[in-house]
Structure formats: structure tokens, C-alpha cells
Design a protein that fits this description.
By secondary structure, the chain is α/β, with parallel strands linked by helices. The protein has two domains: 216 residues, TIM Barrel, CATH 3.20.20.140; 101 residues, no CATH class. The protein is built from 17 helices and 13 strands. A six-stranded parallel β-sheet has the order 1-2-3-4-5-9. Strands 10-11-12-13 form a four-stranded antiparallel β-sheet, with no helix packed on it. Strands 6-8-7 form a three-stranded antiparallel β-sheet. Strand 11 and strand 12 form a beta hairpin. It is globular and about 65 Å long.
Length: 420
């Protein structure tokens, strides 16, 4: 329920009770594409400790370490954490180092959404570099960005930190989607001290402690406050679950508040209450110049970070790679074609240690995308995100034709790639 604003609600019965059984369930669903998975440190902590905001007891930390080891044994490719979100936000650097050491012993990777991507992003990057240094784990900083006008132009300074860490011998790389807007859950607009009460407690606070919540939604101490960093007018609803609120999708919170004739904070709280927190957002808070600066860095690989919920998802879910090829390769010449293809294929496969993936070699898996370099482009937009791209003629997965002449063939040759 807590994550339904990101990924919607699954119609597949939850039958798994271990990481291996989860991977088995993916295989049983016969996907069209290959899949692999990390073990989420937030999931691990929530299982052992719930949503409490305190350091773990020694026994609790050992339980979490054991769960990470079990997941790595059963096929996880590494660990992940969204340090802006609860309960990850409640984890100290020392706790994260202790868990990362477990995954590092299996040559796992730490795929991390930093604790802050705006006013305190320098300190947040220092933290993840420290985790890599002290644990020995490979670090991938996901959707590397500089959020908020006050931070535009800081990309070069942030990348210098990455360069310094790499020169020191720390294996740190970055991932980026080619857009100047992000997407996440709308309940991040509520301060984290309300989240430690759990989903039920958070909903009760929105209903019965509204004035306190509204006051705290303007605070900036101890958390990354999206509304204050980007501005309410730049926060757009991307998904809801109810038909009654479907009209909100694609509108900013300022516009929703105007139509409802309420304060913008009340508009956000009301929507979260009515949808049981299952609300997605898109935030327009980055600069194109920083996007290009980050894109040019040699340690960058391309991701989609795609979320499919609602009628107005972020267009990256449908067209991130075609957009990069059209806008940043063909039109702006930010990257050469060969380098862009490498960053969209082998660079990611190499980071995840995916066997026989990312290159066209004898004996390797035939995962192939055939596109017209002169025609490939994104046709969608934030207003109409569900339009598929053009210029992609064929897609093969494990040698089977999944897309032909731009249309899905119905083939389902995908499989889970397990870590061991």
C-alpha cells in the first residue's frame, strides 16, 4: 500500500516468503524482458524494526545482516536504498556501512538514491562515498541530479567529488535519465517524523493533526522538502487510484488547490487521505544545463527509472532511451552514437555484473535493439506521456523477437538473472 503511488497495485497473488521465491514468481509470470533485483535495505529494516526512528540494537543489526546475506545467496545483485524515504532515512551511515559490507562480500553493488539531492547534496554525496570507502562495496548513485533553482550550476562541483573518489580507488559511478523533472510518491511532502508512525498513523495525522502537519510541511530542517526546494507550482500529480480524483492527474497542486478553493497544503493532505497515500508526483526542479553536464561525465550510465501508474506517468517510462538518441545524440551532439549505445547497454550490464549481457559476441545472449538512427525519437510529452516512441524496428530478448515493426509480438522469452 505504501508504495502503490509508485507502482500501482499488483493483481498477482503474493505467494512468496523469501527473495528466491520472489524471483521464482517473476519467472513464473514469463516476462517479455529479462529482470534482476536488489534487496532493498528499507524492506529489510522494516521487516526487522518496523518504521521506528532509532538505531538498531546489536541483535537487530545482525538480523538485518543475515537477511541481506540470505538475499544475496538467493540471487540479489546487490542492495538498494532510497535515503530520502522512510525507513531508509532513519538509517545511520554506520548502519549502512555494516549492511554494505555483507553485500560487498558477494561482489554486490550499492544502488543508492542519496539522502539529499538539493541544498545538502554535497554532504549526501560525501556520505555515499564514505559508505563505499569503508565497506568496499561498489557504489552506483541513481538518478544523479541537482534539484532546485538555488542548486542549479552545481553539477560540476558534484562531479568533481565523484572524480576524486574514483581517483582514490573507490568504485563509484552515476546513473541518469535524460529529463529535467523527477517522479516519486506524493507523501514525501509530509515530514519524515510523521512516517515513523506507520501508514495508519500517517493517515491519522493528516486527518486529526492537520494544522501541525501543514506547519511542518513548510519546515526544511532535517529533511529534503520538495515543496520548498521546487515550489508548489512545480509539483504535478501523476497518478491516483480513485475515479473521483482522476481529474487531478496532470495538474499542479496549485491548480488543484485553486479548483478546490483550499490552501495548497490542504489540497495535498486531502488528496493523500482520499487515496490512502497512493498518489504519485512529477517535480520540475532541474536545469537542462546540469542535465547535459552530468550526461557528458564518463562514469554516467543511462536509466529510465520508469514508473507506470496513472494516466500521466513521467514520459521517461516510455521514451528515455529514444529521447537520449534523438535529443542529445542526433540534435545536440552531447554524446556520440557509439558512446550513447555503450552507456545504454554494456555500461549498465557491466556495473551489475550481468553475465553474457551488453555486447554482441559469440556465445552471449542475443538481447538486441534495432533502431533507425535518423528516425528514432520520443513522441510523447508530460501532457501525453503514453505515446510510444518511433524508429525502433526490432527488439530481441534472448534471441526471440519481442518487437517487430514497432509492435509487440506477444513473445515472453524473458528470465530472471540471478546473482549467483
Amino acid at each position: 500500500m505504501l508504495l502503490s503511488g509508485l507502482a500501482g497495485k499488483s493483481t498477482i497473488p503474493w505467494t512468496w516468503n523469501s527473495f528466491a521465491e520472489y524471483l521464482d514468481a517473476i519467472d513464473a509470470a514469463r516476462p517479455s524482458v529479462n529482470a534482476c533485483s536488489y534487496v532493498g535495505l528499507g524492506t529489510v529494516r522494516n521487516y526487522v524494526m518496523g518504521m521506528v526512528n532509532r538505531p538498531p540494537e546489536p541483535a537487530e543489526l545482525e538480523d538485518m545482516r543475515a537477511l541481506v546475506a540470505e538475499a544475496m545467496e538467493q540471487g540479489a545483485r546487490g542492495i538498494s536504498a532510497g535515503l530520502i524515504y522512510t525507513p531508509n532515512k532513519y538509517q545511520s551511515t554506520e548502519e549502512l556501512v555494516a549492511l554494505a559490507r555483507v553485500a560487498a562480500a558477494y561482489d554486490g553493488i550499492f544502488d543508492v538514491h542519496m539522502r539529499n539531492e538539493s541544498d545538502s547534496m554535497a554532504e549526501a554525496l560525501d556520505e555515499v562515498i564514505r559508505i563505499g570507502r569503508e565497506s568496499g562495496i561498489r557504489v552506483l548513485v541513481t538518478h544523479f541530479k541537482c534539484r532546485g533553482k538555488a542548486n542549479w550550476g552545481k553539477a560540476e562541483a558534484m562531479l568533481s567529488k565523484v572524480d576524486a573518489a574514483r581517483a582514490e580507488g573507490i568504485d563509484v559511478t552515476i546513473a541518469q535519465y535524460p529529463y529535467a523533472a523527477n517522479s516519486t510518491l506524493m507523501h514525501v511532502l509530509v515530514p519524515p517524523w510523521y512516517h515513523q508512525r506507520g501508514m495508519k498513523g500517517l493517515l491519522e495525522a493528516l486527518e486529526h493533526e492537520r494544522e501541525a502537519v501543514k506547519r511542518d510541511m513548510l519546515s526544511t530542517e532535517g529533511w529534503e522538502n520538495f515543496s520548498q526546494v521546487m515550489g508548489w507550482e512545480n509539483i504535478v500529480v501523476s497518478s491516483v487510484e480513485s475515479r473521483e480524483n482522476a481529474w487531478c492527474e496532470g495538474l499542479s497542486l496549485v491548480e488543484i488547490a485553486r479548483r478546490r478553493n483550499v490552501d495548497v497544503r490542504d489540497a495535498a493532505c486531502d488528496l493523500l487521505l482520499q487515496e490512502n497515500l497512493a498518489v504519485g508526483l512529477i517535480g520540475f526542479g532541474m536545469s537542462e544545463k546540469d542535465v547535459v553536464t552530468i550526461m557528458r561525465h564518463g562514469a554516467m550510465c543511462v536509466i529510465t527509472d520508469g514508473l507506470l501508474s496513472g494516466s500521466k506517468p513521467h514520459p521517461r517510462a516510455y521514451a528515455a532511451y529514444p529521447r537520449l538518441l534523438a535529443r542529445y545524440v542526433r540534435e545536440k551532439n552531447v554524446l556520440g552514437l557509439e558512446e550513447a549505445v555503450r552507456r545504454m547497454s554494456y555500461a549498465g550490464a557491466q556495473r551489475l555484473r550481468l553475465p553474457r549481457k551488453g555486447l554482441l559476441l559469440p556465445g552471449w545472449d542475443a538481447d538486441i535493439v534495432v533502431f533507425d538512427e535518423d528516425k528514432v525519437c520520443d513522441r510523447n510529452s508530460f501532457e501525453n506521456p503514453l505515446i510510444p516512441p518511433q524508429g525502433i524496428d526490432f527488439v530481441l530478448v534472448n534471441g526471440a523477437l519481442v518487437v517487430e515493426a514497432g509492435r509487440h509480438t506477444g513473445a515472453r522469452p524473458g528470465r530472471v538473472i540471478r546473482g549467483r
